[in-house]
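For the sake of clarity, the format in which proteins appear in this thesis is described at this point. The fold follows as a row of integers, each naming the local backbone shape at the matching residue. One such record is shown here in full, so that the layout can be seen directly:
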Amino acid sequence: MATGSRNGILSRHPSRIYFTFILLLLIFTPRADSSWWYIGALGARVICDNIPGLVNKQRQLCQRHPDLMQSIGEGAKEWIRECQHQFRHHRWNCSTLDRDHTVFGRVMLHSSREAAFVYAISSAGVVYAITRACSQGELKICSCDAHKRGRARDDKGDFDWGGCSDNINYGIKFAKAFVDARERMVKDARAMMNLHNNRCGRMAVKRFMKLECKCHGVSGSCALRTCWLAMSDFRRTGDYLRKKYNTAIEVTMNQDGTGFMVADKDFKGTTKNELVYVENSPDYCLMDRAAGSLGTAGRVCNKSSRGTDGCEVMCCGRGYDTMRVKRVTKCECKFKWCCAVECKDCEDMVDVHTCKPHKRPDWLDLT
């Protein structure tokens, strides 16, 4: 997804060249249900009135805060990369579609576990991106968290609040206003599911806030500590939500349309911090345009694994092809004074296994 510098954000009166470019992009992109995720594809060339899929409230926020839209665009690329990392060894691998407003295609039209994860991690990504931009001084509307003052205590003793705490509360507040705006316009099972998973994503980022401290005193002793709260690496949020995907709970709408009921009547827990879904997922084994499945034909698999990346699971029992390829790696590395590491290029042959395509029934070849 292309992006420009933050200073390149256009106002509501962009140059004729950029306007023409975006207009052509919108005209020739296949029509489908759209979402704010497409901001990541437009990057700095944000034209709020022409971003497909924005509801009025989202468009108003875009117009008032174009610098925040740039941060959201950068964050979109980050959470999509995280999604693809988490599912790199699965049949559904969080594939994105170029020149498609929906980014993920028809797979998001189904109220499945995969949709639950995408909504949660995208909401988390907005919180992370906005909070980080606030702390780095990139936005006019927010800065560090100024509310943490005075003394506090942890398991290491007393400390003074100082430094620059990440303003997670502002990130959550803006993400809720922007991301949830579309879902709050309707009251059906899918909208309620999305709102629930959006909240889980936002809270996941806050869950991993960590205390960072600086020591003061003679020779670096910790006679006095100054501490602040900082977000953890986004990978921790991705790992957490990936586990929540594994344990996601199937739900149905209650009779009065005000909430969820767990489909499993024997379920005794709470859905508050769990991802929820309404429809079962397809198996993603075969190409199915209606379901948004790209199939697994040609996907690389691990012959020796019995997990989701193993050839038996990944290839859905169709078998796999093996090809010998040359691999070049760095080897015999030595430290050279001062200060470099010199390595040789070593070549070896390895087997790469890829899933076989689906075999057509014999009777189709007779017609």
Q: What stands out?
A: The chain has nine helices and twelve strands.
